[in-house]
Amino acid sequence: MQVVHSLEDASSAVSKRGPVFLAIGMFDGVHLGHQSVLNAARRSAQIDHGACIVLTFWPHPSRVFRPSDPTLMILKPDQKRRRLELAGVDVMLEIPFDQNFARQRAEDFLPWLKAGIPNLREIFVGENFRFGADRMGSVDLLIEQAKSLGLYIFSGNRVRESGEAISSTRIRKLITEGSISGANHLLGYPYCSEGEVVPGKQNGRKIGFPTLNVVWDPDLKPRYGVYCVEVSLQSDPREWRPAVANYGLRPTVGDLTEPLLEVHVLDGHPKMNTGDTIDVRWLNFVRPEMKFESFDQLKGQIAEDVSSAGAFFRQSPD
């Protein structure tokens, strides 16, 4: 998937690939709702031998309008790009969102797109899509303008689960509550983190549970606690190992001001070394972070956590 940052570059990237089918949105999480819109754009591009482009933005508009209280992102930019590539997107057009772009009138948005990408044929958005200055633009405006520009508009119905629309906001709430399995259900894939393995103080090894200490600084932080996870070397993602992870400040040790991700592999320490980048798939919440009176109590609780994680993996389908 090619990544570009202007309409001109996007048009150049697909100039010889037939008609363009453009999906628009922030796509944070690339969840099941987003995937329904992306799938529609990708299928149309395949049928008409064209190109599937995603128009998205960075940073999130909230960082422009309320920088002291921005919306926290589920995915880091690189993760989002990989998810869009997996969805079959040919080109990702990432427009810098700033005050100038925010002032664009809603009435000017569609003509701007058509002028920048002349072979644009169809636009794909969710039914709640808003755009333009003060979010004055709606799907109805797109449909009205599209007729005179020779364009088609696809407005996808919101995907629902348990009667409630799937949204990035809903998923963020689940992640911060520790409801990771619920978040995964709405994402359509396991919530993931990635980071470099760094040296630790060997406290886990001293009490019989060696861990991989992973540098990871997400925008949206999950609930502090213990999770069932799977881990893999990023350079060799074919093998996922069952593991238990602790994410938090280690209050029993009391030596952290920023949360740390520690991973204990259940079936023996893998060939993962300091400096390696690893991927971690979060599967199930075990318990919240706790402070213990002694290392013996901590050791006993970790043994219970490992046992709980082992039971989880034995019960889970392959």
Quick description:
The chain has helices at residues 7-13, 32-47, 62-65, 77-86, 99-102, 106-116, 139-149, 168-177, 180-187, 203-206, 295-315, and strands spanning 2-4, 20-24, 51-58, 91-96, 120-126, 152-156, 160-161, 164-165, 191-198, 212-215, 225-233, 241-248, 260-265, 277-288. With 318 residues, it is an alpha/beta fold. The strands form 3 sheets. Strands 1-4-3-2-5-6 form a 6-stranded parallel sheet, with helices on both faces. Strands 9-10-13-12-11-14 form a 6-stranded antiparallel beta barrel. A two-stranded antiparallel sheet has the order 7-8.
Rg over CA atoms, rounded to whole Å, is 22 Å
Cα(first) to Cα(last) distance is 30 Å
> What is the β-strand count?
14
How much helical structure, as a percent, in the residues? 25-40%
Helix segment count?
11
Q: Averaging pLDDT over every residue, what do you get?
A: 93
Question: Helix and strand succession?
Answer: EHEHEHHEHHEHEEEHHEHEEEEEH
Largest sheet: 6 strands, parallel
Low-confidence stretches: none
Strand order of the biggest β-sheet: 1-4-3-2-5-6
Shape: elongated
Give the percentage of residues in beta strands.
25-35%
Q: Which structural class should the secondary elements be placed in? A: alpha/beta
